[in-house]
Amino acid sequence: MPGVSMNKVIKKYGDVQVIHGIDLEIDDGEFCVFVGPSGCGKSTLLRMVAGLEETTEGQMHIGERNVTKLDPSDRGVAMVFQTYALYPHMTVKENMGFGLKMNGHPKPEIEEKVAEASRILKLDEYLSRKPAALSGGQRQRVSIGRAIVRGPDVFLFDEPLSNLDAELRVEMRVEIARLHKEIGATMIYVTHDQVEAMTLADKIVVLRLGNIEQVGAPMDLYRDPDNKFVAGFIGSPAMNFMDGKVVDGGVEIPNIGMTVPAPIATAYKGHDVIAGLRPEHLSIDPKGDALTVDLTESLGGVSYAYLSGATGEKLVVEERGDDRVSEGDKVGLSFEPERMYLFDAKTEQRIRG
Amino acid sequence: MNPAIQAMITMIVGIGGCIVYFYGANLLLDKVLFPAKGPNAGRNINRANMIRPWLFLLPAILALGLYLAYPVFATLRLSFLERLPGNEYAFVGFENYTKMFAEPKFTEAMINNVLWLMVVPAASTALGLLVAQLTDRLPWGNVAKSIIFMPMAISFVGAAVIFKLVYEARPVDVAQIGILNHLYLTFGGDEPQQWLTIPFWNNFFLMIVLIWIQTGFAMVILSAALRGIPEETVEAAIIDGANPVQIFFKIKIPQITSTIVVVWTTITIATLKVFDIVFAMTNGQWETQVLANYMYDKLFRAHDWGMGSAAAMIIMLMVTPILVWNVYNARKEMR
């Protein structure tokens, strides 16, 4: 199973450049997820791998082959679309076999491969139905089946779960993960949902405005973000950010009225920074009174307390256990100082101790 | 009285009458017949709501009945009668029909009509689809479409006049104003042809006029249908390795079949009724007769109301099944 490699890949629409020279290596059999907010270019990049969008500059390889100028059908890729993109006038079976039929494969072979794919996806009883007679989840399974049947080197998923309801999304997510284990092919998956990214990916590519912000394994991105954008994007609820200033022996954060000890170089003294703290690393200190509880959300096992501090900056704290705050309470905050991330206030890049 | 004032009064009376009718009838229903109060308030509301649609539809049903349904039955009746001197009528049974079927001119009209039916809807739909697909992505596609749509705005008689000029023949030593003869002579024809007098082929010269008009209609509807095809299905087919021709025939056309059927049947109905073009260009001479012009000949030239009505009934019988199918498909399309 070949991987995908991109070398200084650029996409322009006329004079407008939307992808700014991306270098990326996706290994054989790797599950790579592109995440980012809408308009970050993740779908465009995926469509460039598919060949549906031309690559303006740079080189794109699948395995050893240079596919930069190849037609989509010659690249050995298969794509699963957000809107399923099933052919409405064909049965499930015809939908799945269409690609092979177009490439002139003999009928028995098509039958066999369709049967194999429908077994994997448990679609056997629906083979003679038209897409209109299927539910959303079944349609997406057919769409995945259509991709499997073609036996591609690389699977491309363009937000495949966005049109499904929450429950089905979880179910299909598990199914896609299972599929990846079973087939072992290289997969590229586009989503704006960071939960999908965290759970599915071997490698996450965080994109913003046509640039890669950071590439890495899910937990690496969570534990060690390179910049404020990645820190805020990965993790749910999102990381809390507060303005701070480097002083002797630590960082002064006016919002919570604390000076947090941090191992930061003396050269940074007087520097404006942004302090990042994940909700799950914070706990309520009932003795303090620097923060006011605006709202609490109770999910059962955990609840989220929404607090506002002296400078009006909001933050979220995750609470477990029996003793939880209620709205209007005045509380303080406690956390382990080493859990604090620091970012440069201007460049928003991480300041590592 | 000044005609403008007369028109104003007519309008005020007409619209005022409508308002009075709808408002008054509604009031009568709600306040007098089934008032929404008292012990039976709930039942009264239900009943009033059952009657209300019919009340509002009544004027339209009456008008349509008078101007559409009644003439059908009157024509049917006339087709069984013969007009005698002194404004008398005699019942003659199917004699009008048998006489008509025996006429060679009627057979000719039937055959020609079938020929029109086979050629015009097929050619218009195919050309319309072709133009719609070809102009879809062009920057100047909308300009091309507007030009091709323009004949739709020209009346059939106007179009007939334009094409009479196209087919015009002048003596061989004079400059040809008809473009067809000009081309014919330029490419080696020996003398100008009277195109509309060449039996059998002249039918096609007439059909071209209707095709010219209807292509624009087919193009507009089919172009909208093509735009409605989800782009992803086309992209999926591209990745699946289908070439543009396969995408057009195997992905796009099957997805707009119902629209194609609606366009086809709509043009078929227009073709069955074709009259103006034949009337203005050949008047049915040189073996170009069609049913509608035959009917006109019988009704208003020969003043044979019996046979004219019989011809009208034949046209109606031919249109009805297509019309039903057309409405059925159009409704399916809307769902």
From TrEMBL, chain A:
- CDD domains for this protein: ABC_MalK_N
Q: Which stretches make up the ABC transporter domain?
A: 4-234
Q: Could you cite one Gene Ontology molecular function of this protein?
A: ABC-type maltose transporter activity
One cellular-component annotation, GO: ATP-binding cassette (ABC) transporter complex, substrate-binding subunit-containing
Which Pfam families does this chain map to?
A: ABC_tran, OB_MalK
Keywords in alphabetical order: ATP-binding, Cell inner membrane, Cell membrane, Membrane, Nucleotide-binding, Transport
- Give the domain of life: Bacteria
Name the family: Belongs to the ABC transporter superfamily.
> What is the protein name given in its UniProt record?
Carbohydrate ABC transporter ATP-binding protein, CUT1 family
From TrEMBL, chain B:
Parts of the chain that traverse the membrane: 6-29, 50-70, 114-135, 147-167, 204-226, 260-281, 305-328
Q: Which residues form the ABC transmembrane type-1 domain?
A: 110-326
InterPro entries hit by this protein:
MetI-like, MetI-like_sf, UgpAE/MalFG_permease
Q: How does it sit in the membrane?
A: Multi-pass membrane protein
Q: What keywords would UniProt list here?
A: Cell membrane, Membrane, Transmembrane, Transmembrane helix, Transport
A single cellular component GO annotation: plasma membrane
Gene Ontology biological-process annotations: transmembrane transport
Pfam families xref list: BPD_transp_1
Which Gene3D superfamilies does the UniProt entry name for this protein? MetI-like
Q: Where in the cell is it found?
A: Cell membrane
Q: Which family does it belong to?
A: Belongs to the binding-protein-dependent transport system permease family.
Q: What is this protein called?
A: Maltose ABC transporter membrane protein /trehalose ABC transporter membrane protein /sucrose ABC transporter membrane protein
